[in-house]
Amino acid sequence: MSHFLFSPMAWGLLLALLLLLSWRRLTRRWRVVGVAIGLVLLVLCAPLGANALEWGVESLTPDAARCTGRDTGPIVLLSGGFEREPTDIDDYAAFNPETWKRVRGAVDLWRAGGSGALWIAGGGPYRIKESAMQARLASDWKVPASALRIDTRSTTTWESAFALRPVLPKRIRLVTSAVHLPRATIAFRAAGFDVCAHASDSSFVPFDGSPGYFIPQVSAIYKVEDASYELIGVVYYRLRAWRAARAQPAGTADSRQR
């Protein structure tokens, strides 16, 4: 169902059917509007439109909020999910590509810092928890067990932020994919964290001169689905953060150490 809701191809086909059935009854203005919307959806099915949308969502994380070499504090890695149910704790083939990239980005950041805790948040729907498997992979990549911490209770980004609030200091380094960073940052700031954001990877592909950039592709459609989901998530999380701030008693302060 989610693929239909966020797929430009699905909406384009639905629009084409509606125009076909109602063309004779539509005024000239509505015909123009319908065709214009259809052209926009067609562009979104190509790398040109998909990467423009991807860039727009990733840009919601300002440069000032991104981690620099001077930033310290515990690292929080958000899980990226499975493609299927894992059969064992080291069944890494069950990870989706997003999860691999996130773990790699967090491990690289931890190595650059040289010390500190690496927290991994996310439970998931299966018996073997996402964060436990990601910790196992990080351990295989030479992060010592003494540095690894996991949260297996949370199932959403919002839940992860509030689940980690009692056990972490105020200042953290948040690691996830670039397109997920804006929504994740909102959630962790709503939980009272002072966040520096670190993108494990970016799906944005700039124009390289290839004609294929203007031709509809399946990969572009998937990219639009992900970016659209995150964009709507940003709006929803901002509303949720606003409500949480209004519900907080006046004068309440966060006493955690920075």
Briefly characterize the structure.
With 258 residues, the protein is of the alpha/beta class.
**The CATH fourth-level homologous superfamily of the largest domain:** HUPs
SSE run: HHHHEHEHEHEHEH
Query: How large a portion of the residues is in β-strands, by DSSP E?
Result: 5-15%
**Order of the strands making up the biggest sheet:** 3-2-1-4-5
For the termini, the CA-CA separation is 42 Å
Poorly predicted runs of 5 or more residues: none
Instruction: Give the name of the CATH architecture of the largest domain.
Output: 3-Layer(aba) Sandwich
Q: Total number of helical segments?
A: 9
Under CATH at level 1, the class of the largest domain stands as Alpha Beta
3D architecture notes:
- The chain has 2 domains: 85 residues, no CATH class; 141 residues, Rossmann fold, CATH 3.40.50.
- It has 258 residues and is of the alpha/beta class.
- The protein contains 9 helices and 5 strands.
- It starts with a helix and ends in an 11-residue tail after the last helix.
- It is 48% helix and 9% strand.
- The model has no long low-confidence stretch (mean pLDDT 92).
- The chain has a 5-stranded parallel β-sheet, sandwiched between helices.
- Helix 7 runs parallel beside helix 8.
- It is elongated and about 70 Å long.
Question: How is the secondary structure organized here?
Answer:
Layout: H1 2-6, H2 8-22, H3 28-44, H4 47-58, E1 75-78, H5 97-113, E2 118-121, H6 130-140, E3 148-151, H7 157-164, E4 171-176, H8 181-190, E5 194-199, H9 218-247
Parallel strand pairs: 1-2, 1-4, 2-3, 4-5
